[in-house]
Amino acid sequence: MTDADFMRLAIQAAWQGLGKGEMPFGACIVRKEQVLSVSHNSAKANIDTTAHAEVQAIREASRQLKMLELAGCVIYSTCEPCPMCLPRVCGPRSGGSSMPVASRMRKRPASDKFPFHRVG
């Protein structure tokens, strides 16, 4: 799979969240070409203001790997991480490689059918 394929998974998750009345954000975490998690915002459903797509994806990836550190992982997000999510995406326990992927794709819209946010 390519970067674009992983980003499509994040976009699909955002659409699923939007269909459930959530904010339209999605994230996908990959390690060695293997998808570990795909999530969307679920703050309303969980009554949890921290249940952003990136945080949900990080939680699931950590469960999948049975570890807190996500070294070697890449996160694909449908928009720039918010101030709460950014340290979790780029922090010392993250893979640290998510921003180069995001910045390569930043200028392109996520989808003609999903005009709310830019990729990256």
Helix content: 25-40%
Tally of strands: 5
The H-and-E topology, N to C, reads as HEEHHEHHEE
Strand order of the largest sheet: 2-1-3
Radius of gyration: 13 Å
Largest sheet: 3 strands, antiparallel
What are the low-pLDDT stretches, counting only 5+ consecutive residues below 50? 96-120
- Give the number of helices: 5
Residue-averaged pLDDT, rounded? Answer: 79
Termini separation (Å)? Answer: 18 Å
Which percent range describes the beta-strand content? 15-25%
Structural class: alpha+beta
Shape: globular
Describe the structure.
By secondary structure, the chain is α+β, with helices and mostly antiparallel strands. 39% of the residues lie in helices and 22% in strands. A 3-stranded antiparallel beta sheet has the order 2-1-3. Strands 4-5 form a two-stranded antiparallel ribbon. It is globular, with a radius of gyration of 13 Å.
Quick tags:
two-stranded antiparallel ribbon
Question: Helices and strands in order, then pairings?
Answer:
Elements: H1 3-19, E1 26-31, E2 34-40, H2 43-46, H3 53-65, E3 73-77, H4 86-90, H5 98-105, E4 109-111, E5 114-118
Q: Can you describe this structure in just a few lines?
A:
This protein has helices at 3-19, 43-46, 53-65, 86-90, 98-105; strands at 26-31, 34-40, 73-77, 109-111, 114-118.
